[in-house]
Hints:
Oligomer: single chain
Helix content: 25-40%
Number of domains: 1
Order of helices and strands: EHEHHH
Radius of gyration: 19 Å
Number of strands: 2
Distance between the termini: 33 Å
Largest sheet: 2 strands, parallel
Mean pLDDT: 91
Amino acid sequence: MIAPVVPGLNDSEMPRILAAAAEAGAQSAAYVLLRLPLAVEPVFIEWLTRTQPEKSPRVLNRIRGTRDGSLNQAEFGERMRGSGAVADQIGDIFRVFSRKHGLDRPMPTLNCKSFRAPTDSAGQLRLF
């Protein structure tokens, strides 16, 4: 999982991240585009302007370019991937490199047969 992808800040690193993930044995990959809901927005903007003062205007504009002019989109189907040309470009780069590294497959089915809940050392019994 590449998350969050911050347009103009770390989106260019996706090809290297996917290559490293494949080399480490990953079988599938996904990504989530940055969104800045409610109280997260001012915290992110403060961090960005403090740590990346030269890049911050460009990064914020690129985020707005993926969010219909805003820094957040709450609509289901839009909030994780964004919309517009910048979001499409990020999605295209992700798809090309995940395919190149064999990470464009669905996740394997989980097998929970061997799972055992840990026992409570204080002796608390299970409710269910």
